[in-house]
Amino acid sequence: MKSYIIHLLRNAPSEGNIEGRYIGRTQSPLANEGIELLLDLKRNYEYPHAESFYAGPSISCVDTLKILYPEAEPEVILELAECDFGDFENKTPEELQSSTDYLDWIQNGGKDAPPDGESGAVFSQRVLRGFGMLVDNLMHDGKTESILVAHGGIIMTILAAHGLPQAEFYDWMCEPGAGYSIRITPGIWMRSKLFEVYGLVPSVEESGD
User: Fold this and answer.
1) What's the gap between Cα 177 and its chain centre?
2) What is the pLDDT of residues 31-66, one digit of tens each?
3) CATH 3.40.50.1240 describes domain 4-80+119-201
């Protein structure tokens, strides 16, 4: 039985990220630093080839993918959006420091829903539902090697829920423009919703000297 490879890549930072803002649903373009980072990675490291391309709905995810893979025409998966920060959206901690709602949210580790936002549990359920749809898509279409560009928290959520070897959420943190390669075997996925995490992206071997 064939297996399915997905290379999970974290998006480069947006202008809002650089400014320290809570960027969830705000369409904040890639920062110049993020663009330069991606171009440098592309010059010095080998990224894998793929048959299909997917991205979260933020402009920073789509543009990260287009810089690394100019030929890509990605399918955008709405369920793989960053967390909805509600009333805290596009604001910095300094701008929110007088808000009791914000202080309570921080005190609880950011797990509860911000006002008019979504909780950590709702976020995780949505992300895992979207990833399951992506896997079903791949198995239906028969495309065996794909790229997915998403926010770091989305990648960490997917790997913490389904990855082997098993590891905690923060153990799966990765740098912008980098990530993990996973191998999905249909029988194991259907039976236990697990996949193998087998490598890092991009290749650690420099393509230059």
Assistant:
1) 10
2) 999 999 999 999 999 999 999 999 999 999 999 999
3) yes
